[in-house]
Amino acid sequence: MEPQSITVGKTQIRILPTVKGLVSESKMVEDEINSFEPELVALSIGPEEVTGTRDWDGEPYDMSRWEEVYGLSLRKLLGDNSVRLPPPSFVTAIKISDSKNIDVLGIDMDEESFTEAYTKNISFWNTMSRGRLEKSMAKKGIEGETPEAIAINMENSIRKISGFAKLEEQRVREMVNNLLSLTKEEPEKVTNVTN
Q: What whole-number distance in Å separates Cα of residue 2 and Cα of residue 17?
């Protein structure tokens, strides 16, 4: 997927769609930030994840079974050295931004909001359905002949479970609202890195 630019009011936004975890995305993010020279970098992760990624100590990264199945599917397609956690696109965005004194903002839900939304939307049956889906995907992998197809198929699979579909819609709405609120503060250039 190619980066895209949009203008909202006086703010120019550069959207960098990346595939979560791909090592190869790091160079594109670095090049785009260096050439676009944003005043702010917005990441599609929560504020606590920005801090956690910035402060990551190199120790093994905790991941859910869902993330593990996703990573294994990408590794099967691209090889073991092609995928890392924390996601290289976010690590690079934070590192480059910090070196240039560019503010970095996580526009996804914070942990408290996510917990509330999860509790509100996800039933016991939704959890059981996700468990069965994870088990099936662990055996078969996530279908896709490209990293983008794997990411999209993973997203589409979880959205077939009603509670998770509502949760994902709420997260997307939160990110859009947070991104739009940044345009009201009128920075001239914002780079948004999404996975």
A: 7
Running DSSP on this structure, what letter comes out for residue 9?
Answer: T
Q: Report the predicted TM-score, pTM, of the whole model to 2 decimal places.
A: 0.89
The sign of the torsion formed by the CA atoms of 148, 170, 138, 87 equals positive
Sheet with 4-8, edge to edge strand ranges:
4-8, 11-17, 189-194, 40-43, 103-106
With CA atoms as reference, report the closest residue to 20 among 175, 129, 171, 154: 154
Q: What is the pLDDT of residue 85?
A: 87
| The amino acid at 46 | G
Location of structure tokens 């996580």: 106
8-state DSSP, 160: T
Packing angle of the helix pair 162-184, 111-121 (nearest 10 deg): 150
| CA–CA distances in Å: residue 109 to residues 36, 48, 49, 112, 184 | 26, 9, 10, 8, 19
Give CA separation, 38 vs 12, 119, 187, in Å.
9, 36, 9
> pLDDT tens-digit profile of 56-93?
888 877 788 888 899 999 999 999 899 998 899 999 99
Identify the sign of the CA torsion 19, 9, 180, 165: negative
- What per-residue confidence (pLDDT) applies to 113? 96
